[in-house]
Amino acid sequence: MKSIVFVVLTLISISIFGDSSHFGSQNCAQCHQKQYEHWKKTPHFKAENSLTDAQKKEAKCYSCHKPEQSDVGVSCESCHGDGKYYAKSYVMKDKELAKKLGLKPITKSSCSKCHNKYSLHGSEKDPKKEPVCTTK
Asked: What are phi and psi of 93, to 5 degrees?
């Protein structure tokens, strides 16, 4: 009986409060102001705005230009992972705990999810392959 009550309460809380682990770039800025201000001047911040109207209708373009967890363009969490659980200051002071709670390091592999031979801005461009986001 207790497990049924728990499941019901969990479902109710998810429906009321949502199940998002997204933290938001503005919240990241509370501790990382310098990085936030720099990011706002980068193409990542403006990634969604760089799409044409036709591209904005394509899910394949949004997967890189405005990932689901992003509040604008390519946000902090697009690369570092959803921050709801690792963003607390006591967690961020413990690198191993932060990683266990979802903080992702920035690596060549994490960048190549979008910057690859199939993208217009890829670091591994292949002229024989048609870029993914070329919808006009």
From this structure: -75, -15
Q: Return d(Cα 48, Cα 4) in angstroms, integer.
A: 43
Rounded to the nearest 5 degrees, what angle is found at the Cα of 23, between the Cα atoms of 25 and 60?
75
Choose among 114, 130, 133: nearest CA to 122.
114
In contact, 117 and 125? CB cutoff 8 Å: yes
Segment 26-56, tens digit of pLDDT: 899 999 999 999 999 999 999 888 888 988 8
Map tokens 């070329």 to a residue: 134
d(CA 21, CA 77): 10
Spatial neighbors of 87 by CB under 8 A, at least 6 apart, are 23, 27, 28
Q: How far is 78 from 69, CA to CA, in rounded Å?
A: 6
Q: What is the pLDDT of residues 106-129, one digit of tens each?
A: 888 888 888 888 776 554 444 444
Domain segments of the chain as ranges: 27-104
CA distance 52 to 136: 7
